[in-house]
Specification:
Number of strands: 0
Order of helices and strands: HHHHHHHHHHHHHHHH
Strand content: under 5%
Shape: globular
Distance between the termini: 11 Å
Largest sheet: none
Number of domains: 1
Number of helices: 16
CATH topology: Growth Hormone, Chain: A
Structural class: mainly alpha
Length: 395
C-alpha cells in the first residue's frame, strides 16, 4: 500500500499542504466553543435550535459542494487555484458574517444563508488540499496521516483559542477565521501541481465514483466518525456548559474539548504510517469499536476528571482510525479521480457531521445528554460490526 519513494520535495509539499488543512480547520473550529454566544450576537432568540441551524447550514453546503469542487479539480487537472479560490471565498463569508449585525439589517434566516455561502467556499479549500496530499508519493497512510495531524492540530488549537476569543467578543472568532483562511489561500498559491490529467467533463468525474463501489466502505466509516464530531461540536459543547452538569464557561469548554483534539492530532501521523505496514482493517474496524465505547464513557462519567480522561481516550482511538480510513479512499480511487473521491468522502463526512448536530441535538433535547451519548457511541459500535465483512473483503 505504498506509493513511489518519498522525496525531499514531497516532504516540503506535504508540510505545506498539511498547513493549509490545519489553517482551514483551525478557522472552522474557532467558532465551536462559543456557538451559543455567537448566534445570540447574530440575532438568534434561542440557544439550542439556533446553534443547531447555524452549524447545519455550513455542513449542508459542504455536502452540496464538496463533490463539485473535486470534480472541477479533476477535470482541470489542478488543485491549487481551486484551493486558493475556496479559501478567499470562505474568508469573505466569515468577514460578511462578522459585519452583519452592524452593517446589514438581516434576519437570522439571512445569516444562515451567508453561513451556507461561506461553507460552500470553505469546503473547496479543505477537500482539495486533502486531494493534493493524495497526489503525493510516500505512502497513502503517511499522506493521510499528515492530513489527519493537520485536522487534529487545527481543532485542538482552535477550540481553546475560540473559547478565549468568545469571552473577549462573540464575533471575534469570525474575524480571526477570515484572516486564517487568507493565509491558507496564500499557502496554496505556491507549489507544483501533481494532479493527473483532467477528465473530459465534471459529470464524468462524478460518475467515476460510481465505478468504484468499494469506496462506500470508507465513506460509511467516514459518515459515522464525523457524526460523532458533529455531536461533540454542538451537544458536547452544551453538555459541558449545562448549568445542571459541569457548568463550564466558554474558555473552560474549549480546554476540555482540547483533551480530545490534542491526542487526536499528535498521533495521526504515526498511526497513519503504521497503517501502511499493518493494513487498514484493524485501525478502521477495531478503532471504531473502541471509539464508540469511549464516547459512551464521556457521557456516563460522573466527574469532570473522568469525563476529561474519557475525552483523551476518544482522541487516541480516533487518531488510530481516522488516517487509515482516509488512506483507504486513496487506495481505492484512481489517480484521475482522486479529487472527486475525496470530495465524496467529505460529502459523507459532512452528512455525518450534520446528522450528529441534528440527531444529537434532538435526542439531547428530548431525552437528555446521556441518551444522546449512547446513541452516538452505539452508532460507532454498530458500523464496526456491520461493515467488518466488507472491510475484510477489501483486504
Amino acid at each position: 500500500m505504498r506509493d513511489a519513494a518519498n522525496t525531499p520535495n514531497a516532504d516540503r509539499e506535504r508540510a505545506s499542504l498539511a498547513a493549509v488543512v490545519f489553517t482551514v480547520l483551525f478557522a472552522q473550529v474557532l467558532l465551536y466553543p462559543g456557538v451559543p454566544d455567537l448566534v445570540s450576537a447574530l440575532g438568534a432568540t434561542t440557544e439550542l435550535d439556533a446553534s443547531t441551524y447555524f452549524l447545519a447550514a455550513e455542513f449542508a453546503a459542504f455536502i452540496a459542494f464538496a463533490g463539485v469542487w473535486g470534480a472541477l479539480s479533476d477535470r482541470a487537472g489542478a488543485r491549487r487555484p481551486f484551493i486558493t479560490a475556496g479559501a478567499v471565498g470562505g474568508a469573505a463569508g466569515y468577514l460578511t458574517l462578522a459585519g452583519a449585525p452592524a452593517v446589514l439589517d438581516l434576519t437570522f434566516g439571512g445569516v444562515l444563508l451567508l453561513r451556507a455561502a461561506q461553507g460552500a467556499a470553505t469546503i473547496g479549500a479543505f477537500s482539495l488540499a486533502m486531494a493534493a496530499l493524495m497526489d503525493l508519493p510516500g505512502g497513502h497512510g503517511r499522506n493521510m496521516g499528515a492530513a489527519g495531524i493537520a485536522i487534529g492540530l487545527g481543532t485542538a488549537l482552535g477550540a481553546p483559542l475560540g473559547g478565549q476569543l468568545t469571552e473577549f467578543d462573540p464575533l471575534a472568532p469570525l474575524v480571526v477565521a477570515a484572516g486564517m483562511l487568507l493565509v491558507a489561500g496564500a499557502l496554496a498559491a505556491r507549489g507544483p501541481e501533481r494532479a493527473s490529467g483532467g477528465r473530459t467533463s465534471v459529470r464524468e468525474a462524478i460518475r467515476g465514483i460510481s465505478e468504484t463501489p468499494a469506496l462506500l466502505v470508507p465513506y460509511a466509516f467516514g459518515f459515522i466518525d464525523r457524526l460523532s464530531a458533529g455531536f461533540f461540536a454542538l451537544v458536547g459543547t452544551l453538555y459541558f456548559r449545562d448549568p445542571s452538569g459541569f457548568a463550564l464557561g466558554a474558555g473552560e469548554t474549549g480546554l476540555v474539548l482540547a483533551l480530545f483534539f490534542a491526542p487526536f492530532a499528535l498521533l495521526q501521523y504515526p498511526f497513519g504510517a503504521l497503517s501502511d505496514r499493518v493494513g487498514r482493517v484493524l485501525p478502521v474496524a477495531g478503532g471504531s469499536l473502541l471509539y464508540g465505547v469511549a464516547v459512551v464513557a464521556v457521557g456516563a462519567a460522573p466527574t469532570l476528571l473522568l469525563a476529561g480522561a474519557s475525552m483523551v481516550l476518544v482522541g487516541v482511538v480516533g487518531a488510530a482510525m481516522s488516517p487509515a480510513t482516509m488512506a483507504l479512499v486513496t487506495d481505492l480511487a484512481s489517480p484521475a479521480n482522486r479529487g472527486a473521491a475525496i470530495g465524496g468522502f467529505n460529502v459523507a463526512g459532512s452528512a455525518g457531521f450534520l446528522a450528529g448536530v441534528l440527531v444529537g441535538g434532538y435526542v439531547a433535547d428530548a431525552y437528555g445528554f446521556l441518551a444522546a451519548f449512547f446513541v452516538v457511541g452505539g452508532a460507532e459500535i454498530l458500523i464496526a460490526v456491520v461493515a467488518l465483512p466488507a472491510l475484510l473483503a477489501l483486504r
